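Researcher: Please predict.
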Amino acid sequence: MLTAGIDVGSRTIKVVILKGYDDILGKQVVSTGINSTGRAERVLNGLLQQVNYSRDDLDYIIATGYGRINIAFADEKVTEISCHAAGAYAEFPGARTIIDIGGQDCKVIRLDKEGRVEDFLMNDKCAAGTGRFLEVMAENLEIPLTEIGEVSLQTRKAAAISSTCTVFAESEVVGLVARGVPRAEILRGLHKSIVKRLTGMVYRVGLEEEVVLTGGVCLNSGVRKILGAELDINIKVPQYPQLAGALGAAKLAWLNS
């Protein structure tokens, strides 16, 4: 059986094709762009072509994420909460808390022992504590986004960042740079401000181990390590953290077809 999961986020589109429940046949992450429907379909068709299959061979497609409503060719549309839960739980059956940090939202999901969603909390009203927040700060500090995590770990001292609002925090960063504060200290302060927001969400939902971290910001070693230290736990990270939602959608497609 061949199934596909398509996760249309605000910043990126993720596609996973499964052959059976556990065999990832193809996967890809691309920027969302202005035509998410067309881009998602092109990525799906391209992946199928690479593995010598066609759309007719697909048994079921589930779309999830911010832009799932636009994927008209999907057989079903499922919330990102359910899909991230399914993706993380499939790799870590002991998972009880999932923290997902996406491009423009973040969410905390609590699962029961069977992987069912018990409770969740989602911040989708502003970009604070998200990938876009870090993109803006990296641009202001003139450091590649892929390097800011390691740079933030070069110091134990964190600059005080009082605001989690992207606009106000940007102004604070400009002021800190003007005063000659080292960029490593600024970045550590920014990461600590993100972690503070996340831990507040975690404790409101209820912290239960194992904790799994998903989403693109999961690739940031600074956020990862500071969050683990703040929660005083060992955080699990999937093999493909950006693909958790798409993978979960593909697995649910397998179960639902």
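Model: The longest strand covers residues 12-19.
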